[in-house]
Design brief:
The protein is built from five helices and three strands. It is mainly alpha-helical and 137 residues long. This is Sulfur acceptor protein CsdE.
Length: 137
């Protein structure tokens, strides 16, 4: 599976824990979602309606070798924030080429399928799809 090293490391970390520990790790990621820079407002970001909770993202591909990703999700949506934080930790600063090479279903490798509803998992897939669409457009 083709993944940038930071994302592969996140996947590996999830694969090393079992059951409820995976949820705990997802919540840790949720708490680590970076704040938006002061010059970026949620209103200017793209909504991801496939997510069950309000999620907004912004892809800055001005430098295709170091793509910047920004996410906004409410604190009361820890699963969505966790997914966004995983993508931020694994893909922010990577090249457009490397991000586009990430398999659309990489999130299945996290092993969260038995713990999180398929609808929520599709939200993570939708985030990655929208990021890729921005990089292709």
């Amino acid at each position: 599976m083709s993944m940038p090293a930071p994302l592969a490391e996140v996947v590996s970390d999830f694969q090393e824990v079992e059951g409820q520990d995976k949820l705990a790790m997802l919540l840790e990621f949720a708490n680590e979602l970076p704040a938006l820079p002061s010059d970026l407002e949620e209103a200017a970001m793209e909504p991801v309606p496939e997510c069950q909770s309000p999620l907004f993202l912004h892809v800055d591909a001005g430098d295709r070798e170091h793509v910047r990703l920004f996410f906004s999700a409410p604190a009361e949506a820890p699963t969505t924030r966790g997914f966004a934080a995983i993508l931020a930790a694994g893909l922010d600063g990577q090249s457009a080429e490397d991000i586009l090479a990430v398999p659309d279903d990489f999130y299945t490798s996290l092993g969260l399928g038995a713990l999180i509803s398929p609808l929520r998992l599709r939200g993570m897939s939708a985030m990655l799809t929208r990021i890729k669409r921005r990089l292709q457009g």
